[in-house]
Amino acid sequence: MAAAQTLLGPVLLLVACFAFVFWPQEKLSAEVEKTRLDYLRERKDVIYENLRDLNFEFRAGKYPEEDYLQQRTTLEAEASTVVSEMEALGG
Amino acid sequence: MPHPMPSFGSFSLILALALCVYSLAAGALALYAIAHGKPLAVPPERLRETARRAGIASFVAVTGAAVALVWASFTNDYSVAYILHHTNRDLNAAYKFSALWSGQEGSLLLWAWLLAAYGFVLRVRHKVDVTLSAYASTILAGVQIFFLLLLNFAAPPFSIAPGPVANDGFGLNPLLQYPEMVIHPPMLYLGYVGFTIPFAFALGALMMRYPGEKWIHITRRWTMVTWLFLTCGICLGMHWAYAVLGWGGYWGWDPVENASFLPWLTGTAFLHSVMMQEKRGMMKAWNVWLIFATFMLSILGTLLTRSGIVSSVHAFAQSSIGNWFTTFLVIVFVICLFTFFYQRDHLRSENKLESLVSRESSFLFNNLILLAACFTVLWGTLFPVLSEFYDGSKVTMGPPYFNRVMVPVGLLLILLTGAGPLLPWRSTSFRAIRRNFVLPCIAIVATAIVCMAAGVRPWQDDDASGGIYALVCFALSAGVITAIGAEFLRGAGVVRTQSGRNLFSSGILLVRRNTRRYGGYLIHFGVIVMFIGLAGSAFNQSKELEMSFGDTIQLGNWRIVCQSYSQDSNANFDTDFALLDVYHGNKKVTQLTPERRFYTASQTTSTMVAIHSTLARDIYIVFEGRNPDTDRPIIKVFLNPLVNWIWIGVFIVILGTGIALTPPLLPVARRVEVPTAAAEAAHA
Q1: Does the distance separating the beta carbons of A60 and B494 come in below 8 Å?
Q2: Which CATH number applies to B539-643: 2.60.98, 3.40.50, 2.60.40, 1.20.1250?
Q3: What is the pLDDT of residues B246-261, one digit of tens each?
Q4: Which residues are CB-neighbours of B476 under 8 A, at least 6 positions away?
Q5: ipTM (interface predicted TM)
Q6: Is B126 in Cβ contact with A42 (below 8 Å)?
Q7: How many contacts, defined by CB atoms under 8 Å, are there between A and B?
Q8: Complete DSSP assignment for B410-431
Q9: Which positions of chain A have pLDDT values less than 70?
Q10: Which of A13, A26, A75 to mutate: most B Cβ within 10 Å?
Q11: Is residue B389 over pLDDT 80?
C-alpha cells in the first residue's frame, strides 16, 4: 500500500508530461521567414522614431536650429534610402 | 519504509532532466533540419513543437521537486538530510519556507526552478518570433540540463539522512533568520537566472544570423526586469548586512557581494549600449559580448558562492561542485567564442562614431567605465585565489583597494549620468553644449559652496580624501539632478504648448508618451540619490564602551544613556537585550533595544542591531556581548549619516524601472513627406 502511494505521484506526473509533449497538435504556429522587406520596415520605424525624438528635443530647446537642420537632413536621407529600397522591393 | 515526498521530488528532478535533454536534442535537430532543408522522419516543425512542450513540461517537473522540498520542510521530515540540517520544529513558517534556499542543494533547486519558470514564459510566448524563440528555448534547455545534472548527481536535495530519523533538526543559520533573508536570495537569483534569457536570445540570434535588431526589442523587458531583480537583490543584501551583521556598514567588498555586483555592472553597460544598436545599428559585437559576459559572470558568481574557493560570510561550505561550474563556464565560453567567430560578419556596424562629444560617445565612455569597474572588482576578488594558486600565499584585497579605484570610477559615472542625456546623437556643437550645460554647472558650483559653508571642509580633517570625494559627489549629484529636472521641465513645456494643459499634467502626459526615456531618467535620479547616501559614509562616527546602568556614550550632539538590561526567551532562542535612551541635546528622541540572541537548535549566538533611522542619519547600536573578565555588556554606537537615502534611492529606481517597462501611449500619426532617392534623381 505504502509503495503504491509512493509510486502514484511519479507515475501520474510521467504520464501527464508524456501526453502533453507528444499529444498531436492540429495547428502549428506559422513559420514566418523574415524578409529583407521586414527588416527595412523595422529600420524605417527606427528612423522615424529618431526623427520624432529629434523634433521633440528641438522644440524643447535642446538644439540650436542649425544643428537640428543638419541632423534632420541626415535622418531624412537615411529614411529616403530605406523607403526607396522598400519601394523597389514592392513594399 | 519508503518516503513518498522525497521519492516524488527525486523522480521529478530525473524527469525534468530527461525532458530538458529531449528539448535540447529535438530542438537542435529540428532547427538544423529547418535551416538546411533536410528531411526528417517527422516534420521538423512538429519535432520543434514537441521540444518546446518538453521545455514547458520541465517547469512542471521542477515545480514538483520544489514543492516536495518545501512540503518536507513544513512537515518536519527529518529523513531528508537537507531538511535535518537547515530547519528545526520551532522555526517559524516563513523561515521554514526559506529553507528552500538556505543551503547548497536547496538554493540550486531554486536556481533550476527559476530557470524553468523563465523558460516557461519564454516558451509560452513563442509567437513573438517562432524561430528565434525556438533557438532561445533550445539554448535554455542546455543551461537547464547543467543545473539538473548538478541536482541529480552532485548536490541532490532529497538525500536520505543515514540512521534512524531524528526527532528535531539542527536549525537554520541564525544569520539567515531575518525578514530580508526570506526575499533577498530569490530576488538575487531572479536577477542571476534572468540574464540567461537575453543571453539565449543573443546567442540564438547570432547562430541563426537574425536580420535586424528585433531580438533586442524582444529581450528589452526581460533584461530590464532581470536588472531590477538583481538591483533589488543586491540592495536587500546590503540592508541585511547592515541590519544583521552588526559591523555598522552595508558593503564590505566581500567576494560574494562582489560576485553579485559583477553581472550588475556588465548588465547595466548592456542596457545602455544596446540603445546604440537599436537607434544606430552600432556596437553589435560589443553588445553580444556584453550579454555573454553578463551570463558568464552570473555563473561565476554562483561558482564563487558555492565552491568555497573564496572566504566569505555568505559563501556556502566547500564542495566539489566548483569543478562542475568551471567546466560549464569553459563550455559556454567556447560555444560563444566559436559562434562569434563563425558569424562575426553578421555583426558589422552600420554606422561609425562621428564625434567624441555625442550621445553615442557618452554611452561608449559609460560602457568603458562600467567595464573598468567590473575588471577592478573581478581582479580584486580573484587575486587572493590566484596568488594562493601561484605561490601558496593568500593575499587579502580589502576595502582600501576597492575604494581607491571604485570611488573615482563612481564619480565619473555620476558625471556621465548627467552629461549623456544632454548630448545629442551623432555630434554636438559648442552652442548646444553651452545651452544644455549651463544650469547643471551652476548647480554643481552652488552646491559645493553651500556644502563648504555648512561645514563640509574635508581639507581640515586628518584623512581628507573621503571627505573630498563626498563633497565632489554631492556637487556632481546636484548637477545631475538639475539636468534631469531640466529635461522634465523642457519636455513638459513642449507638451503644455501642444495640449494646453497645466505643467503638472503635461509632465504626466510626457512620461506616458515616452515611458522608456523618462522612466530611465527616474532610474538615474534614484541612482544619484543612492550615491548621495553612499557618500555619507565618509562622515561616519563610532564609539564603543562597556556600559553599566546610567553610563553614557556621547557622539556629536547625540547621547546614549543605559537604562537597564533584560532577558527573554522563546522556543527558538534566548535573548539578552539592553534598554538605551537616545537623546539629541537634552531632548529624549527614542529608546532602542539592541539584542544578543542564543539559538537553541544550532547552539549559536547572533546580534540583533537596533537602529533609529532618519533622513539625516542613523543611530545604530550593537550589543556586542559581555566582557569575559568583567561580565559587563559591551555596547557599540555608530552615527551613520544619510544611510536612508540609499534605501529611498532603491525605491525610486524600482519606480523608474516600472515606468520604463510600461508601454507608452502611441504617438499621434502625422504625415511627413520624405523625398525618395528615385524621386530626387528624377528631380535632378
Answers
A1: yes
A2: 2.60.98
A3: 888 899 898 888 999 9
A4: B411, B414, B415, B418, B444
A5: 0.84
A6: no
A7: 130
A8: HHHHHHHHHHGGGSPSS---HH
A9: 1-2, 28-32, 91
A10: A13
A11: no
